[in-house]
Amino acid sequence: MRLEMGHIYIKDIQFADESKIQDGVLYVAKEELEKTALEDEKIKGVSFDIARPGESVRITPVKDVIEPRVKVEGRGGVFPGVISKVDTVGSGKTYALKGMAVVTAGRIVGFQEGIIDMTGPGAQYTPFSQTLNLVMVCEPVDDIKQHDYEKAVRFAGFRVAAYIGELARSLTPDETKVYETCTIKEGLEKYPELPRVAYVQMLQSQGLLHDTYVYGVDAKKIVPTILSPTEIMDGAIVSGNCVSACDKNPTYVHQNNPVVHDLFEEHGKTLNFVCQIITNENVYLADKQRSSDWTAKLCKMLDLDGVIVSQEGFGNPDTDLIMNCKKIEAEGVKTVIITDEYAGRDGKSQSLADADAAADAVVTGGNANEVIILPKLDKVIGTLDYVTKIAGASEETLREDGSLEVELQVITGATNETGFNKLSAR
Amino acid sequence: MDSYMILTNNPLAARKLEGRRTVCYISVPYEELLREAEKKICQGHRLLSHPLSGSVKPKETPYKSIMLSGKKEEVDPQSVRMIEAAIQTCEKFTDRQKSYGQEVYEDFQLIDWTLLESAMESADVW
């Protein structure tokens, strides 16, 4: 499968009378955005704001972050099964608006997740302090159920992102990158000497605010399957989860998954990037067994030499991670796993809730329990009402001087387990 | 497939399942509930759902519902290992279960219920 990705760099976002992209500036008409968001009768109001890197702005509680894209050639459209029809995507030509994101924020339940600081120490922990963010806060109709509200916000974000992406359809990209995968046979013939490597991506799939969707299908209902890695670049996987925001994959991370991009970089040079295998992280233990059995089976059937396995979340998914690792290794396929740690505030506790000797190559996204002080910022988009009730916070979180004492787990993307974060060790 | 029972400290789950399922409702803190599950596992019940399900951290949410096999068999080592690891993990977190307003407690109950519901949906296929 061959996908040409055209990158259009956005230098600024401004509200204007007419929506367009000109000279790298995205102009958006608020009324058009509102009309797009309010298509769903479950949303009665929406407000839009712009947060730029370096500004004294805190966005919270963040639900999702989305990169606007548009499919200009080839089958299907962006976010298949959600915004576009369910055609298989990942081939042809797609444009992405780089340097910006649509961020959805707002209350769904009384404990809320996700902080993006655009400046200060918090900004150093989230990749989304570097993007120009068009933030939308949706207000639901009265007496709405949390499930319906979550779905309405999720879909409104995708509609707005697709609307903005569409503005780029007739532009010429600033840069073009080509991603191409081979069929099994082609790969074997073309790269007989190179190790056959796949990416096993584990998707959070447990319940309200804990779900992920593949072509519109709730990931807890899938059995492990194979994707061409280019499919995710068209939005084949989207996020519906944000609880404990540090190690959840917003849609933006799925679209720009660094494991996929790095494997493509090495494809044909040091390895043969065979495919992406997706699996889930369900609550029911027999589901965990089935999914890890199937993942290992697929690795064997594909004659892989190695896989990179990325986790999403912590605790219960540690079990899925170790089951996957152990079973794939038992099939003779080498594994490298990517996780993060909850090692206590002092970093001295056991990092994972599960372990095995087979997990002898581990990459960590960082310690989510690490404490950080976030100074008071001039402006809040969303609300701080829930900040004492988010993961890693407490009643002492909001200090007298307006600063916040929190654990890294409150910061969107801080310890991301695909490597889409800013922490490293030396 | 064996029948199952739900061990829970979540009043919403207990209410929703009353008369429909075998429910053991006990009004105890999160960690205590895990210890109750451990006792049942030592009596020969098997864990059917993961004791650390959900991303709301132990003791940050007061609620947990765990699915166990209804029948007692030989003690299942995997269940023992899993519940012990869960208790150990739970000990790492600060207890914040008394610091919320009523509305927040209800939301925590709802989240725990949706996690349990997803496990039941899988279990009921059998």
UniProtKB/TrEMBL annotation, chain A:
This is Glycine/sarcosine/betaine reductase component B subunit. The active site is at residue 242. GO terms for molecular function: oxidoreductase activity, acting on X-H and Y-H to form an X-Y bond, with a disulfide as acceptor. Keywords: Pyruvate, Schiff base. The keyword Calcium does not apply. It comes from the Bacteria. The modification Pyruvic acid (Cys) is found at residue 242. The keyword Cell membrane does not apply. It comes from Lachnoclostridium phocaeense. The lineage of its organism: Bacteria, Bacillati, Bacillota, Clostridia, Lachnospirales. It holds the Pfam family Gly_reductase. InterPro entries: Gly/sarc/bet_Rdtase_B_asu/bsu, Gly_reductase_pB_sua/b.
Automatic annotation (TrEMBL), chain B:
InterPro entries: GrdX-like. It comes from the Bacteria. This is GrdX family protein.
